[in-house]
Design a protein that fits this description.
Strand order of the largest sheet: 1-3-4-2-5-6-7
Strand content: 15-25%
Helix content: 25-40%
CATH class: Alpha Beta
Largest sheet: 7 strands, mixed
Order of helices and strands: EEHEEHEHEHEH
CATH superfamily: P-loop containing nucleotide triphosphate hydrolases
CATH topology: Rossmann fold
Distance between the termini: 16 Å
Shape: globular
Number of strands: 7
Mean pLDDT: 85
Number of domains: 1
Oligomer: single chain
Low-confidence stretches: 53-57
Number of helices: 5
C-alpha cells in the first residue's frame, strides 16, 4: 500500500464522539513508551503525525487519523504506568474498553510490545481480555533493531511460550523497527488486504 495522505481527523474522549464509522479502522495500543507514536509515523511516512514523547501518558484521547481518505488509523492511550492519578488511569481504561467493544468499524487492534524485555503480565492480560471479548488483534514487536537475530529469536520464543499457555494458536505477529522501517510494509499490506474485504 502506498500512503498518499495522512491527516489528523479528530480527538475524542468517548467512542460516541468518534468520526462516523463509515470507513475501516485500525487501532494501535501498547504500554507507555513502547514506541507507538514512532511506529505510526513510520507507517504513514511522516515524522509529526503522532506526537512522540519520552514522558509516559502523553496520549490521553482516542486520536483518529484519516489515511488515503479511505481508512482510519487510531492512536489509543497507552495502558499501564503513567504519572497520573489512579482515577485518571481508570477513566482512560474505561474509555479504551468502551471503544474496543463498541466501535463497529474497528477491523483489528495492533497491540505493541517491546521486543527487548520479558513478557509483561499487563500485556498478556490485555491480550487475554481482547481474546475473551472477541476483539480481533495482532501483536507488534517494536524496537527489534536493538536485538541481534539470536536475541530476537529468544524474545519471540518467550512470548510464544507465554501465550500458548492460554491460547491454542497465536494471532498474527509483526516484527518492527521505527529506525530500520522493518515491518511497516507488512503491516500496511495486511491493512490493504483487510480493506479490500471490507469494500
Amino acid at each position: 500500500m502506498k500512503i498518499t495522505s495522512a491527516t489528523f481527523a479528530k480527538s475524542s474522549s468517548d467512542y460516541k464522539q468518534c468520526p462516523p464509522p463509515d470507513r475501516p479502522e485500525y487501532a494501535f495500543i501498547g504500554r507507555s513508551n513502547v514506541g507507538k507514536s514512532s511506529l505510526i509515523n513510520t507507517l504513514v511516512g511522516r515524522n509529526d503525525l503522532a506526537k512522540t514523547s519520552s514522558q509516559p501518558g502523553k496520549t490521553q484521547l482516542i486520536n483518529h487519523f484519516l489515511v488515503n481518505n479511505t481508512w482510519f488509523l487510531v492512536d489509543l492511550p497507552g495502558y499501564g504506568y503513567a504519572k497520573v492519578s489512579k482515577g485518571e488511569r481508570q477513566k482512560w481504561s474505561d474509555m479504551i474498553d468502551n471503544y474496543l467493544l463498541n466501535r463497529e468499524n474497528l477491523v483489528c487492534t495492533f497491540v505493541l510490545v517491546d521486543s527487548r524485555i520479558e513478557p509483561q503480565k499487563i500485556d498478556l492480560a490485555f491480550m487475554e481480555k481482547l481474546g475473551t471479548q472477541g476483539v480481533p488483534f495482532c501483536i507488534v514487536f517494536t524496537k527489534t533493531d536493538k536485538l541481534t537475530a539470536e536475541k530476537w529469536k529468544a524474545s519471540f520464543e518467550r512470548y510464544e511460550q507465554a501465550l500458548l499457555q492460554t491460547w491454542n494458536a497465536l494471532p498474527p505477529i509483526f516484527k518492527t523497527s521505527s529506525i530500520s522501517k522493518v515491518g511497516a510494509r507488512e503491516i500496511l499490506s495486511q491493512i490493504e488486504d483487510w480493506n479490500k474485504l471490507n469494500e
